[in-house]
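Q: What does the assembly look like in three dimensions?
Context provided by user:
Components: two
Sequences:
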Amino acid sequence: MNEGFGSRLRSALDRHGPLCVGIDPHAALLDSWGLPQSAEGVRAFGLAVVDAAAGRVAAIKPQVAFFERFGSAGFAALEDVLAAARSAKLLTIADAKRGDIGTTMAGYAQAWLEPGAPLEADALTISPYLGGGSLAEAITQALPVGKGVFVLAATSNPDGASVQQARTDVPGETVALRVTRDVTALDVAGTALGSVGLVVGATIDRSAFALDDDTLRTVPLLAPGFGAQGATPADLRARFGTLAGNVLASESRSILSAGPDGIAATIEERAARYQEVMGG
Amino acid sequence: MNEGFGSRLRSALDRHGPLCVGIDPHAALLDSWGLPQSAEGVRAFGLAVVDAAAGRVAAIKPQVAFFERFGSAGFAALEDVLAAARSAKLLTIADAKRGDIGTTMAGYAQAWLEPGAPLEADALTISPYLGGGSLAEAITQALPVGKGVFVLAATSNPDGASVQQARTDVPGETVALRVTRDVTALDVAGTALGSVGLVVGATIDRSAFALDDDTLRTVPLLAPGFGAQGATPADLRARFGTLAGNVLASESRSILSAGPDGIAATIEERAARYQEVMGG
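A: Here is the predicted structure of the complete assembly.
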């Protein structure tokens, strides 16, 4: 059995603090970086971000859609970016939001979480519209090989509430809570940080989703919404309270818009601000 | 403006009947076909299925996970399979269940629905855990270029109900119905078959999801669950009633298990049985 993802994440958080750098090479950013709208463009962009992030933060999070739009050539670029991040000892979270059932879900786990796979990452974001239990095939494949998942639970986009705050037939249970219960039941971490994480928006009111601190005590939280989307490093403690130590705070635009010349300094400055807040 | 996806689907259904052949090259099927566990294996498998399906059915539906597990090489194989299907005048539905928000969702639409994209398909399955409205960027890109989507709504896997039958704050509204309302509101079809479809399990009780026939009148329905999963051609009319004419009945295992030598005859026989039921 490999060291668990939760344990590796704990070490990375303790060492580097909570900042996770998103790699979102959308069209406007490629333009402003002077890069072409092509697989070569997203490769160069991704490799530059990895280079700037190496040694400075816990993790990087490539947004898969921006590579996928160039088809197989875009995926080849992403393979190179993931390999470079692995070499640089950055944790890699593939933000792909995959979700299916049975052998198909297992196929996604093979694609992203199997050691030696071309697209190997340390963790994958997955989506539970087919039910939290439908993700079991991916989770049970991931954990024994030291990989993790972040399951979409409670997101900050306005449309999210229409699904995630809906009520199941269990009194007091929202969809977000039901998914959380279903997927964390598959974890094996005990009292340490687990390997089955959740995606929880930085700016949401967790109580509207019925997600209390006790339920989330040992759950890694991937929190988009920091930086350009509004949450600040100071908000991390204010919004996550006793859970703050388990949060990966993901920033994309606020960092990437610094451009190729400014990004390393920007990452260093942002990482230091989070470390300050966390008393690191 | 191109001919809409709904209109093209209507023609294909009228001509060939409802059968949609799934292309699911999972490990066990590759073995039984005598093909290697590699991108070459899934390419050969996919091309053989396209060849057998050409001229006999309305559509093929590659299950993207089984290509994705081989990384960029698997996607290159899928590009070839999609191109072959296009040349053979088969409608192509990429079963990828992508789902995200904003520019990221737009990235997925570019990847799969933009004319000329390497992975171009006629329609893409998409997943609404982030809310039906979150999918708007994909839908508004797809429709003007003659492409369609099938949004996960009410599925037949046992875990699906925990999310899809949950109740929103609108009386009588399930998550499945809310998603349906949100996404079909973005369609432009009027009284003809639309281009914003739903994935609805063949074996579900639609009333448990509050999905009534009036709501679905002009909505294309992609129904997995035929064949090995239990629903028969005769069930199509029994289960879908007046909506049966808008259903793509997807079969995978029941057809693919015929092997490379038997698949063409099996498709022909299955297609004929559906045509009979539909009075074609």
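Follow-up: Chain B touches chain A through 61 residues (CB under 8 Å).
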